[in-house]
């Protein structure tokens, strides 16, 4: 039985990856940060009751207290587990927040990656342990070519992107310096019903569900013209695993090869709750109107703009498709939005039922 260690196991990708690996008969270990609240709460919030019970009751799933910024702690955990594979998904991954917390973002996203690589080296596990580093399309930032592929020059436009560029290069450096199987998966935007509620796609799907059920009046967003390559997180974790099964350690772009605006995401999300959006105005004055009622339900607020904007990101998944046999469009953009809105419709309905019980 292979052993896998997942940092960031309480996030969207970590939870999907844990389930995926358990289905492949792995012994899965996840790292969670210690807090005063119940330590499995984040996982239970992400998953349905059935999913949470299946994951947390699995005898091959184990949780450990730790933090990638604590080098001694990470070395101890890796030494005890002796994993065959490490998936470093831990990160401060909110781009806008990285401008407010650049130091913390650096500690987690850059130094955290170094701590894992150095621990594997010090412990003498370079021949045994394969390491996957979750890289990001934000490395490309001010894009130098379209679409972006493995050879496209980087130009990060946020503290998050800059911290992740260190993680990318230190992973590659340890691979070349110490013959480690350490690789980067350059993930483009990937969403799901488990996406954090502060991320724009989940913010939109939740707002569509709440507005449709009369629980919210308006949705406020930033740049509606931003173009992104959006895929389904559940499909993307399969590619992470395939990268570590590849014969040679190589870096791969994980993307769909399709691009859509935030505006398109809004239109499609509301379409799934039978609301047709009409747009009026431009720039910060642009508004989305419910065609049937004439009410303004979408507005733009400059506070959600980034100091340096990334206008478009479009990945080229040719290498992943060709060498790994991965299907980047197993779940279409339309299916992704539908999955998210349907899940949030159920979430809002459940919240309403719970509220009425205590009223």
UniProtKB/TrEMBL annotation:
The protein's required cofactors: NADP(+)
Superkingdom in the source lineage: Bacteria
EC number per UniProt: 4.2.1.47
Signal sequence segment: none
First-tier enzyme category under EC: lyase
Keywords: Lyase, NADP
Lyase as UniProt keyword: yes
Reactions catalysed, as given in the entry: GDP-alpha-D-mannose = GDP-4-dehydro-alpha-D-rhamnose + H2O
Residue ranges of domain NAD(P)-binding in the record: 5-340
SUPFAM superfamilies registered for this protein in UniProt: NAD(P)-binding Rossmann-fold domains (SSF51735)
Pfam families per record: GDP_Man_Dehyd
GO biological process: 'de novo' GDP-L-fucose biosynthetic process
Single Gene Ontology MF annotation: NADP+ binding
Family assignment from sequence similarity: Belongs to the NAD(P)-dependent epimerase/dehydratase family. GDP-mannose 4,6-dehydratase subfamily.
HAMAP family, sorted: GDP_Man_dehydratase (MF_00955)
NCBIfam families hit by this protein: gmd (TIGR01472)
Xref: PANTHER family: GDP-MANNOSE 4,6 DEHYDRATASE, GDP-MANNOSE 4,6-DEHYDRATASE
Functional description taken from the UniProt entry: Catalyzes the conversion of GDP-D-mannose to GDP-4-dehydro-6-deoxy-D-mannose.
Name of the protein: GDP-mannose 4,6-dehydratase
Species the sequence originates in: Niallia nealsonii
Phylogenetic placement of the source organism: Bacteria, Bacillati, Bacillota, Bacilli, Bacillales
């Amino acid at each position: 039985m292979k052993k896998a260690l997942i940092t960031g196991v309480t996030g969207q990708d970590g939870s999907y990856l844990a389930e995926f690996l358990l289905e492949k008969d792995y012994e899965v270990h996840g790292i969670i940060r210690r807090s005063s609240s119940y330590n499995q709460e984040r996982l239970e919030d992400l998953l349905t009751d059935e999913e949470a019970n299946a994951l947390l009751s699995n005898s091959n799933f184990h949780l450990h207290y730790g933090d990638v910024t604590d080098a001694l702690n990470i070395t101890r955990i890796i030494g005890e587990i002796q994993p065959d594979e490490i998936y470093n998904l831990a990160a401060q991954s909110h781009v806008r927040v990285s401008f407010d917390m650049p130091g913390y973002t650096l500690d987690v996203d850059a130094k955290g990656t170094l701590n894992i690589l150095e621990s594997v080296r010090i412990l003498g596990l370079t021949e045994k342990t394969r390491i996957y580093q979750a890289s990001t399309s934000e490395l490309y930032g001010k894009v130098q070519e379209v679409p972006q592929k493995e050879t496209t020059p980087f130009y990060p436009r946020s503290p998050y992107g800059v911290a992740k560029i260190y993680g990318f290069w230190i992973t590659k450096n340890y691979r070349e310096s110490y013959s480690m199987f350490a690789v980067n998966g350059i993930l483009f935007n990937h969403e799901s019903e488990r996406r954090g509620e502060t991320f724009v796609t989940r913010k939109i799907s939740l707002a569509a569900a709440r507005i449709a059920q009369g629980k919210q009046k308006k949705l406020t967003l930033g740049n509606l013209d931003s173009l992104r390559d959006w895929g389904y997180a559940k499909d993307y974790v399969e590619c992470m695993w395939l990268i570590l099964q590849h014969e040679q350690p190589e870096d791969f772009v994980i993307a769909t090869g399709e691009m859509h605006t935030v505006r398109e995401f809004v239109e499609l999300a509301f379409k799934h709750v039978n609301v047709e959006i009409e747009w009026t105005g431009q720039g910060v004055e642009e508004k989305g109107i419910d065609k049937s009622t004439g009410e303004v339900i979408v507005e733009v607020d400059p506070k959600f703009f980034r100091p340096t904007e990334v206008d478009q990101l479009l990945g080229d998944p040719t290498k992943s498709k060709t060498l790994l046999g991965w299907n980047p469009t197993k779940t279409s953009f339309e299916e992704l939005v539908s999955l998210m809105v349907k899940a949030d419709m159920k979430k809002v309905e459940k919240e309403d039922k719970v509220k009425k019980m205590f009223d």
